[in-house]
Amino acid sequence: MSRQQMKIPGFFDSNHTDKVWPVNYQQREKDAIAFRKANGVTHWSQDRIKVCLLLIDDQITFCLPPPWGQLFVGGRGGRGAIDDSIRTCEFIYKNLDIITKIVPTLDTHISNQIFHGVAWVDENGDPIDATYAPFIELEDVKSGKRRPNPALAAELAQGNYGWLQAYFLHYVQTLTDNGQYKLQLWPYHAMLGSTGHALVPAIEEAVFFHNIVRNSQTGWEIKGGNPLTENYSVLQPEVLKRHDGKPVAQMNSRIIDILLKHDMVIAQGQAGSHCFAWTMEHIRREIKTKDPSLAKKFFILGDCTSPVVIQGVVDFTDAQTAAFDRFVADGMNIVKSTDPIESWANSPIR
């Protein structure tokens, strides 16, 4: 007999996924306890097959349109992350009984970071406007057309501006040499302590509800606060070493250990072309060195993630497609959230 999906709780309203509102935690706790009893949902520790749901950066800054979303991921259609959030919430509610643990990541930024306009000046010493996410070209750094902001040297380089210049050049050069995305100056987003840093309320509510129903503590993962590098991926920064050979930051091997303890890892998030894609890329590389057969336990909700598209400026849709093709080629699975988990090819849930 095939498994019956859970019914979506009556409090969920798909028309509110694009809005900011406070989650009523006390009421949702009562709802969760009643839901658990009514549906006979067991404690997470009794799961025969342990399932982890990895949620990458489902934050207000990416998932809601302006003014709340400073870097809204609309995709080519303009509603990308909004519709992704609806499907993600519905997926969580329908599969509460088999999702063992939810691990959400939070992109986390402060002002003085290498990918913000304040970190750079032009040849005249004037600040760079990052409103439309300009790229920092390697040749412009070499020529001095783009330079580190001297005002940040005291904080980032103990007052040694020459060191900061050498590092910034090294950073852009490393991205180029490794075939990574060019350094892009993003508008301020996911700022620590801001509204934009929080999960989208609809997803936050679903995650909290799952936590109470299954008695499974949500596994929060913070990334992105290093001023000298960007962290698209939750596993590691874009650049690992400084120009003097010392480490910029370390790989987060702990998250890989958490994921691989589960029999099945389901992943979604924003943006499909950036933080989600690079997180999955680093997972792909790690498991390829450990055991390539592990790839088959990873399932990507292809209808719950969208690429960065800034109309008339950049379109990363093709980059997302290319990344997903790599994942599939190495054994990962692309699936639809609207299909029952037990119907997915290679699914251990039957």
How would you characterize the overall build of this protein?
- There is one protein chain.
- This protein is α/β, with parallel strands linked by helices.
- It folds into two domains: 14-107 and 196-343, Rossmann fold (3-Layer(aba) Sandwich); 117-177, no CATH class.
- 32% of the residues lie in helices and 11% in strands.
- It has ten helices and ten strands.
- It has helices at 25-39, 60-63, 80-94, 138-143, 153-156, 161-177, 201-214, 253-260, 275-290, 317-329, and strands spanning 51-56, 101-107, 120-122, 146-148, 221-223, 264-269, 298-301, 309-310, 314-315, 333-335.
- The chain has a six-stranded parallel beta sheet with strand order 5-2-1-6-7-10, with helices on both faces.
- Strand 6 (264-269), helix 9 (275-290) and strand 7 (298-301) form a beta-alpha-beta unit.
- Helix 3 (80-94) packs parallel to helix 7.
- The chain is globular and about 65 Å long.
- The mean pLDDT is 95.
Key terms for this structure?
Rossmann fold; 350 residues; alpha/beta; 2 domains; 11% strand; two-stranded antiparallel ribbon; 6-stranded parallel β-sheet; 10 helices; 10 strands
Question: What's the structural blueprint in terms of helices and strands?
Answer:
Layout: H1 25-39, E1 51-56, H2 60-63, H3 80-94, E2 101-107, E3 120-122, H4 138-143, E4 146-148, H5 153-156, H6 161-177, H7 201-214, E5 221-223, H8 253-260, E6 264-269, H9 275-290, E7 298-301, E8 309-310, E9 314-315, H10 317-329, E10 333-335
Parallel strand pairs: 1-2, 1-6, 2-5, 6-7, 7-10
Antiparallel strand pairs: 3-4, 8-9
Helix pairs in contact: 1-7, 3-7, 9-10
